[in-house]
Design a protein that fits this description.
Distance between the termini: 37 Å
Bound molecules: coenzyme A
Number of helices: 7
Radius of gyration: 16 Å
CATH class: Alpha Beta
CATH architecture: 3-Layer(aba) Sandwich
Number of domains: 1
Oligomer: single chain
Helix content: 40-55%
Shape: globular
Structural class: alpha+beta
């Protein structure tokens, strides 16, 4: 499971100005993955509209990159003002060739750390009732599952932040920033 992540793939936060990468990633999802991600059929326009607003103040995105291309995203959305709320929701998308290789698990782990460090107590995730993989993923992290009109709601309780959890996120962010800068530099060189 970790091989793919260490073998050319990496996970980092998406920064302001990377909404276009998120849009292209969601548009690349195959039909079934797109349906599962949004809990129903959505148009390309709907995706464009979603990504325009996704990187706002009430959300944080983690991305899975392979050779500089975004192949998976975890979207964490705070349910209320970011530094006051104790609840958030998360949604995940991994392009099909990269599914079942541990990417979703790694994205959820990073998302949980970020939520925890923002004082979030409960993380909600919703998926279709036939989405066994998402349910398995939530169960791995001890989420409680409840069934609700064709959907499954997964709820995770997050522990309180500690100096160590804050430090872990800071280290991750330092690496993320360095990698994002290297990516941007190599794109500029290629374009030139
Ligand atoms: C759901 C999704 C995010 C999971 O990500 P992933 O990278 O495929 O998941 P992982 O490889 O980390 O697997 C998570 C767990 O799911 C289970 N799993 C993996 N492949 C599975 C499969 N084909 N069928 C059923 N369960 C499976 C396993 O228990 C696995 O954990 P383990 O390998 O440690 O035992 C991803 O498949 C996806 O993007 N699907 C389309 C969009 C979607 O469904 N989003 C969720 C709604 S928001």
């Amino acid at each position: 499971m970790d091989e793919l992540l260490t073998d050319g793939g990496l996970i980092r936060k998406l920064w302001v100005g990377e909404a276009d990468k998120y849009r292209e990633h969601l548009l690349r999802l195959d039909q079934e993955s797109r349906r599962r991600r949004f809990g129903g059929t959505v148009s390309d326009d709907c995706i464009r509209n979603h990504t325009e607003h996704a990187a706002g103040l009430d959300a944080m995105l983690h991305g899975f990159f392979v050779d500089g291309v975004l192949r998976g995203v975890a979207e964490l959305r705070f349910l209320g003002p970011r530094y006051l709320t104790r609840e958030a929701e998360a949604a995940f998308s991994v392009e099909s060739p990269w599914q079942s290789h541990g990417v979703g698990s790694a994205l959820l782990e990073r998302t949980l750390l970020t939520a925890r460090n923002r004082g979030v107590k409960f993380l909600h995730m919703a998926c279709l009732a036939d989405n066994k993989r998402m349910q398995q993923l939530a169960r791995k992290f001890d989420a409680e599952l409840s069934f609700d009109f064709g959907n499954v709601v997964c709820e995770l309780e997050t522990p309180r932040p500690t100096p160590m959890s804050l430090m872990r996120e800071m280290v991750n962010d330092g690496q993320s920033l360095a990698t994002a800068m290297l990516d941007a530099q190599s794109h500029t060189l290629k374009a030139g």
